[in-house]
TrEMBL record:
Taxonomic classification: Eukaryota, Metazoa, Ecdysozoa, Arthropoda, Hexapoda
Residues that, per the record, bind FAD: V132, V269
InterPro entries, A to Z: FAD/NAD-bd_sf, GMC_OxRdtase, GMC_OxRdtase_N, GMC_OxRtase_C
Family the entry assigns: Belongs to the GMC oxidoreductase family.
Name used for this protein in its record: Glucose-methanol-choline oxidoreductase N-terminal domain-containing protein
Signal peptide: 1-24
Origin: domain of life: Eukaryota
Keyword tRNA-binding: no
Molecular functions (GO terms): flavin adenine dinucleotide binding; oxidoreductase activity, acting on CH-OH group of donors
Cofactor(s) listed: FAD
Keywords: FAD, Flavoprotein, Signal
Stored PANTHER family: GLUCOSE-METHANOL-CHOLINE GMC OXIDOREDUCTASE, RE28171P
Family matches, as Pfam families: GMC_oxred_C (PF05199), GMC_oxred_N (PF00732)
Amino acid sequence: MALLLGAGMSTAMAGLWLMPLMLAGIAYHRYETVDPESRVLDASNKIREEYDFIVIGGGSAGAVVANRLSEVPEWNVLLIEAGGDETEISDVPGLAGYLQQSELDWQYQTTSSESSCLAMHNRQCNWPRGKVLGGSSVLNAMLYVRGNRHDYDHWERLGNPGWSYDHVLPYFIKSEDNRNPYLAKTPYHGTGGYLTVQESPWHTPLSLTFLQACHELGYENRDINGEFQTGCMIAQGTIRRGSRCSTAKAFLRPVNLRKNLDIALKTFVSKVVVDPTKKQTVGVEILQKGKSKRVIRVGKEVVLSAGAIGSPQIMMLSGIGPPDHLARMKIPLVHALPGVGENLQDHIGLGGLTFIIDQPFTFTKERFQTVPVALEYILNERGPLSTLGGVEGLAFVNTKYANHSEDFPDVQFHFAPSSINSDGGEHIRKIVGLRDIVYNTMYKPLVGSETWTILPLLLRPKSSGTIRLRSRNPLHHPNIRPNYLSHPEDVYTLIEGIRIAMQISNSTAFRKFGSRPHTIPMPGCKKYAFDTDPYWECALRHFTFTIYHPTGTCKMGPAYDQLAVVDHELRVHGVKGLRVMDASIMPMIVSGNPNAPIIMIGEKGADMVKNAWYHSKGDEDIDQLHEFADSEENQTVE
């Protein structure tokens, strides 16, 4: 999610010289002793020949699905994860930026573009995705945002019964253990669930300034996951005891010792094996140590939870997808589904929108790259390292293109007391992929300055892209073509979002600190006057900033929808025994950071499987399973 926005904070606070101290301190003083849920047991060397259910991908949804399906004692469940386990560094919220381009990251890149990502090397945007147990919930900025009521009501109107807001809300609540006593009392939040949600225990003074500025513009301070979304809020995230609460920590560690759940790490799924005659899923083909190939049989169903990139890739490698593309790849067609890999949607905005103040309130390398900051976190679980990837505030605002008569904002703000320059050019520019001329021209002059940023994010883009295979080799990354800013309305809406961000800086609340915009023009845009529409469009096409919310590539919809891949119960159209449960099933991207909705999809999808296989036994058995699950949730370590 918004991890790059906070990378300035994380890298400013902990240079590479500080890493050994962090690793030793966390491991010795806190990590295993205060986190007795402990590590999962890797079953990759003792995978059975057959399982009732196989879940592909142990990420934000897959971890949830594996937990819930293994609640049924007589079902054997295998969870397959291509990556390894989390590390001590990934556990530290403030170090989110360091996880990119590491072994925990798939390190995807978009294809080269002529109309977006122009400020990046080779005109390609980096797309970090979690190659680790817990998936991208291990790499993201931990922000807990559910989206808008109208998102889910629209899903249902598209022909997906059971996916309205009123239907999905109970599944958000089911997962949640909200530690804010005021929010926990409302009907929109839950306590006692596996997933801990709370505010960071540490904020800069600018977080309150941000709320005051929003209020000046007419936006209320409210629970953006409650009755209304429009407004501002101190960010809540998936953290627990000052540490990241990934879905692996939340949903897998507490049930680590279930005898009917095997978790295979560093195991790569090359394809789903489907009987082409019966169109019946019979198993999955796996690769271990990069070469040994083996088929694991499935008795009931395979659940594909490999994400918006991995799920369509695996389906196409399995012969399920657009016939013409599979023919070009020389992959035998098992079942034609033209929508596989289509409908790719993502949230984007303007990167590096920077404002300068005169007070020492922001994250800078000199101020936070210190031993005392590290020790404060190691010993007390507090301090700057406990912040949500550096993001302190969220806002949902209306441009002139939004329908102001309903609560359906079209732009989201991520506020952070840092910017591209905050680490002195050590790390942020690399993980963004920013070209030297851009950094040296725009941000190097700001090194040592007090800077903050707002990322204006387009919530419902009309541009969409595709995922396509690069080759038949399952180890090759697919081609990612997001087609950013191909629809003119996306550009117009984002420009209006930028102008509202400029109003935030010009508010009385921020002006008392001398806030003003950074006006050095973007290289490549100097022919346009600063703060004009042509300039902002040029800047958007250069510093196209994604916070990595790919969705929609295995779209949920009825059979008459030619691009639909799964039905409303997440069953793949025309293929028995195969479901998809992850961000790829979203018919339209949600209005906000999608990690919480993906967890909801895992919760709801797992119940669909239980209902399908327990149908003949009646509702009483399902109720008993839920009671069993609730009893285990109540034992989650505090």
